[in-house]
Specification:
This protein starts with a helix and ends with a strand. It has three helices and six strands, in the order αββαβββαβ. The protein is α+β, with helices and mostly antiparallel strands. A two-stranded antiparallel sheet has the order 1-2. A two-stranded antiparallel sheet has the order 3-6. It has a two-stranded antiparallel sheet with strand order 4-5.
């Protein structure tokens, strides 16, 4: 979580500089350990470059309620419900997303989600687990 926040702050500062807006100054915690409030310039969520696209960040790609183009969150939920209805009583299905595949050392291939996991969840993020 902390690294994600740092990435977000770096992107926010870069966008603020690019647009000529004031950038938030780094302020260390006060003596009582509480972080002072920060003031950020307004940046559209569509300008941020991380995570799976959503309607709020990519309205040109996704309609309201869609997780992926043409498929709503409700449809993904219905797919998982159909799977759950086929399980034995008190049965559980645990679905794992694809893992990162390494070429050599720290170099890895571009992430490609497992087709079955994607069909049931609509998520392209890694690593992920789903149960139902």
């Amino acid at each position: 979580m902390r690294n994600g926040l740092r990435t977000f702050e770096r992107q926010l500062r870069a966008l603020s500089r690019k647009r000529g807006l004031p950038t938030p100054a780094h302020r260390p915690p006060s003596r009582n350990g509480v972080l002072p409030s920060r003031s950020y310039a307004s940046v559209s969520a569509a300008d941020l470059q991380f995570g799976q696209p959503l309607h709020e960040t990519h309205p040109h790609l996704l309609k309201p309620g869609e997780l992926t183009p043409g498929i709503t969150a409700l449809e993904y939920a219905q797919r998982r419900s159909r799977l759950a209805s086929k399980l034995p009583k008190n049965g559980v299905a645990i679905l794992a997303a694809s893992e990162l595949k390494y070429r050599s050392g720290p170099v890895f291939y571009k992430f490609h989600q497992d087709s079955d996991f994607f069909y049931l969840t609509g998520t392209m993020n890694d690593p992920s687990l789903s149960s139902g």
